[in-house]
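Let us practice reading a record.
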Amino acid sequence: MIHEYDIKMVVLSKRFVYMIRNNTNHTEFYIGYSLTLELKSVCTNHRSRYDSPKQTSKLYSKMKEIGFDKFEFSIIDICTSEDTDDLKKMTIQYINDLKPTLNTQEHNFDKKEWRKKYQDANKDSISQYQLGYRQYNIFARQLRNIVDE
């Protein structure tokens, strides 16, 4: 007989941090996390992204170069917490400690910190966008005034 506690633990045990390692060069690897999927589903999802011509990240570029079958998927830690932030923090810790070579994005899940970095890195394009937006609004206002007359 399965108890409610057992079912809850099975569901929670599906939240994990995983690694995708290049079998031809073990120094090349990727670290990610999964909220509710099994490792088989993670493999299937990455396989479908690998097949997509839109994917150009380091991981998929390397997969396309040497073949999807040259990569091994493994679970490196299981998160039993129900809080998604705990899983994300665990993943960040592994990324910071192991320094994966095939992760493209910087994985800090603090939105305020990410926004600040993005704004600092894109000041010029943001300023140009804002200037264009203001000019468009001025033009639209002038056009409405002409139409209203």
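A brief commentary: Residues 4-107 form a domain with the GIY-YIG endonuclease fold (CATH 3.40.1440.10).
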